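The authors assume throughout that readers already know how a fold can be written as discrete tokens. A single example would do more here than another paragraph of explanation. An entry of this sort, consisting of the sequence and the corresponding backbone structure tokens, reads as follows:
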Amino acid sequence: MKIKEIIGKWEFINGEVITDANCKLIAAMIKNELLEIESSADGWTIKYQGSQGEIWELSYPESHLQGGGPPKLVRIK
């Protein structure tokens, strides 16, 4: 089964933001596997292409949080 959506979560412990495994997976995919192909004018949505031609979209659905909140990566094609 192929992954279609990865949603990161943040936890606040003693005033610090702790990222979950999904946040770390998204960061690793962006760094090591995906190539940026398009960015929205405001920079809050970025499209990437994977090595098999798949298209991923990075967004920050909890934009009310500092830094846009945790990331969400969705395979759209």
Remarks:
- Helices lie at 21-32.
- The two ends are 15 Å apart (CA to CA).
- Strands lie at 5-7, 10-13, 16-19, 35-39, 46-49, 55-59, 72-75.
